[in-house]
């Protein structure tokens, strides 16, 4: 039979209602994920572009937020020693148990003063508190790395500022940690065991591996071999002692005239300083030499003692002539004082110094600094 003569076969068209969705997909609609066909969108091209930009922006913001959180976690400050309170008064110190003692010396200025900087051999007048700081491990708390306790404080003892010669304080770490710091500063010094009290530490309850934390208020600094700073003032009174300068840091030569001593207090400025004037209640740091008029004998001298002295001014803590003669005098000055008995040790004198109740006294005073409070 010829191909053209074969009977036609009718094609049977499936009924869409009888076909499950996996077998029939209307034109233009994706059968599901991965079909390769996109769902039609009612958005215009511009709207679609805006949506894509917004989506990208959201992703960027999220990434930055996560990165920022990671950065903060990595760079956020760790625990540190905290010190509060005003200069010249007892400070409050908090040493975190999460912080381990430093292996080396550390020094940090908490309050910066504007006075002279500390150098080796200088004399500094300080108030301080200090603490034991020991390493510790706690099996129950891995975060605990140290313990600490207060050892002592010059404030609690009611003492005035303490004079320390830099390089001779007895604590190497303290000497080194304060170098370059300025008068008027509060300084935190972390001293490792190798630079601490050494064998003397056991007397303070320190272990050989314990560090020490100092908080120091530097209230005055006197340079090594300091002397008067200012303009010399001429004195030609033949009835008063002659004072000759012998160089920086050295006691002056004082020649007492062979005449009767004056009956009233004599105050003569030999060098006019340029620093602040002393007022009632100030603590003055001075070098001085005291002699007896009648024979010129030196009974006391801070020059020979090798360290300046500190005197409260105008509050009756020293002989009357000192209070009267130094009140109003400027730092940097050299002052000659002649004190009749009533302005000195009075009728009782001072037997220990060899001073009788009738003796007139001669002082030459170099005003080197005023203690900052």
UniProtKB/TrEMBL annotation:
Q: Name one GO molecular function term.
A: peptidyl-prolyl cis-trans isomerase activity
What's the catalysed reaction?
[protein]-peptidylproline (omega=180) = [protein]-peptidylproline (omega=0)
EC class of this enzyme?
isomerase
Q: What is its EC number?
A: 5.2.1.8
Per the record, the domain of life is Bacteria
Q: Pinpoint the PPIase FKBP-type domain residues.
A: 121-222, 281-371
Q: Where is this region: Disordered?
A: 1-39, 227-259
Record field: transmembrane? 53-74
Where are the compositionally biased (Basic and acidic residues) regions?
Answer: 234-247
| Listed InterPro entries | FKBP2/11, PPIase_dom_sf, PPIase_FKBP_dom
PROSITE patterns hit by this protein: FKBP_PPIASE (PS50059)
Q: Keywords on this record?
A: Isomerase, Membrane, Rotamase, Transmembrane, Transmembrane helix
Could you identify this protein by its name? peptidylprolyl isomerase
> Which species is this record about?
Actinomadura verrucosospora
